[in-house]
Design goal:
By secondary structure, this protein is of the alpha+beta class. Strands 6-3-9 form a 3-stranded antiparallel beta sheet. A two-stranded antiparallel ribbon has the order 1-2. β7 and β8 form a beta hairpin. α1 runs parallel beside α3.
């Protein structure tokens, strides 16, 4: 992966960055009539951690078309979906979401972080970026119950947070990786 200035990037590099790195819909990229339209698609999708005025492209640029048309968009095999997500949402975490007896407790989970949503099946090994793990870990519902205080005394209402998605951690990132990710992105992502 290489970082280049937007001003120095070719239209083909902009298209590759938009589709392969940022995950922008290929039809929208193809329909961008000119460079300013392409830039209008890329700018809001760029992670805040990228320096202003730069984009990322794969080391091997896609081949140029011989017909005078725009080069074909690079195949997605050059970077996996998870590699693309880890750049924005933290190191990979492996875990299982445990089914529960609550309503919907066997349905898939749909964590969403900064507008990006993943669908995760319960009771299966999941590999996802750390920010999505945190979103599941922080999803709780409030519940209350009363505790008797003895004869003639009113009951006390107790409150508890119950996890919507009980997790079984298989492999978490190292404390150093988590600290580095929090220092760089954590507060921005968790505040959204």
């Amino acid at each position: 992966m290489q970082t280049i200035n937007i001003a120095d990037a070719t239209d083909d590099q902009l298209r590759t960055c938009a589709t392969l790195i940022l995950g922008i819909d290929e039809d929208a990229v193809r329909n961008a009539a000119d460079r300013p339209a392409l830039m209008a698609l890329i700018h809001p999708a760029r992670p805040q951690t990228w320096d202003d005025g730069t984009i990322r492209v794969p080391d091997a640029p896609p081949p140029l078309a011989q017909t005078g048309q725009a080069a074909p968009i690079a195949p997605k095999a050059e970077m996996t979906f998870l590699e693309n997500l880890t750049e924005q949402f933290g190191p990979l975490t492996r875990f299982k979401i445990i089914p529960t007896n609550m309503p919907g407790g066997n349905h898939p989970a749909h964590p969403c972080v900064n507008g990006r949503q993943l669908v995760m099946q319960r009771n299966m090994l999941i590999e996802a970026p750390y920010a999505f793990y945190l979103a599941l870990q922080n999803a709780k519902i409030g519940d209350s119950y009363e505790v008797e205080n003895g004869p003639g005394k009113p009951p006390t209402t107790m409150y508890a947070d119950i996890s919507n998605y009980p997790l079984s951690e298989v492999a978490l990132p190292s404390p150093e990786e988590i600290a580095a990710w929090h220092a760089q992105n954590g507060q921005r992502l968790l505040a959204a």
